[in-house]
Write a structure and sequence with these properties.
about 40% helix, mainly alpha
Length: about 25
């Protein structure tokens, strides 16, 4: 189940990345 853009944004805001950093 891939996270939705909103969920991904929320996780990113919390500093919790499910994907490798874009760096």
């Amino acid at each position: 189940n891939a996270p939705t853009p909103v969920d991904a944004k929320q996780l990113d805001d919390l500093g919790i990345r499910t994907l490798p950093p874009k760096a």
